[in-house]
Amino acid sequence: NMLSVADAAIPSDVIEHSKALILDAIGCALAAGEEPAYARAARVFAQLGGNSDCTVIGSARRVNLPQAVLLNGILIRALDLNDAYIGPGQMGHPSDNIAVALSVGEKFRASGLSVIASVALGYEIYCRMQDIIPDRGTWDHTTASALAAPLIAGRLMGLNAAELAHAAALSATHGNTLAVVRTGQLANSKASANAMVASQAVLCSLFAAEGMTGPLGVIEHPRGLSTGMLAGAKLDLLAQPIGERYRIMTSAIKAYPCIGTAQTMVAGVLQARAGIADPAREVQRIEVVMADIPIVSAQVADEQRRYPASRESADHSFYYLAAAALSDGEISQAQFAPGRWLQPEMREAMARVSVRTDASLNKYTPGSYPAVVKLILQSGESREVEVIFPKGHPNNRMSPAEVEAKFRACAHGRVPSARQEKVIGKARELEKLASVADLMNDLAESEGNKQ
To answer: Which SS3 state, helix, strand or coil, does residue 35 take?
Structure first.
């Protein structure tokens, strides 16, 4: 029922926020063009070859559809700068699947409005999955994409209801991801977690279009998701019609390239350090207090985050993020230069950070990850800042101009400014584009499109 919502029935505010998220995801992808996870996967596909149907964002190379979904998915996710869904349950990053909508839309020449509608409906399914999971447990949140991604793809491919059902059944059967991918010292494959699920989901949609069938009881069956990721979940929510508010409207656009639960803390450190001449020397201790909710408590309890050993762990470490924000006055790509978190002065600074949870902050949850940051100076003076809704949160939205400014910052040095404005212009009016391929062509590097 949900997927039968007509393109033209998508509300105007949903269209506008969807366009903002699509532009934001593209910017995140452009900024990640030098990231090792992407480079490694791209080298493998270069060795394999294949049809050149689809654009890889920011690259001169074109690849086949499942490869494009995987590479663009890695690019969108690599810097931990793409969106964060802040619902009543688990947190996730539904914009990972914008890679599916853009690449499938390009291959099948879908209109801009169809891509927008598929993104909005894909978010609805993904976010409902996060809402009903009582406890993530063994399963990573990207497992939700095994259900959302094939439906985004299948809708853009024009599959009928039976084919869509089989695409989802195939994908949900084979697309489960273990939570170890986001535990302890994180492996450099972290950015590919959702991309692998999504790429396989598109394959499953292509298979279903050719008549391949999947186990349609994959959700309810005792050997299916109902006793796996969805054990104890209220499954009826998945099939309910969309109410007044689409869940995509509660997805935040990140201001900082780091884990979603730390956005408030980073904002708090940056606010508290303002006006201190030499924060790295003058601040004796940083005390951080966060809400006592399961997702945050589990991250605070993860001792491996105390002293990160990899880029992927550093952007998930409250300790490193607090120390780097204090020292540098920013959290951007610059703070993740190779090995920065291993430097003696940074490790010493991390040792001066304490993080604890306090249930008194729970009054602001669900829907937020509040933080109180206290800086204690060598002089004995202290500064305290409370941040409930960081910039980009649904209750503190980025304006269209701020979203575009973030895009320009991401695209700087990757795409010439004239081309940036062309992309922004097409994203602004995406619902009017006859084919999303027009936008994707502007994202491909060519001889006339280099910085």
So the answer is: coil
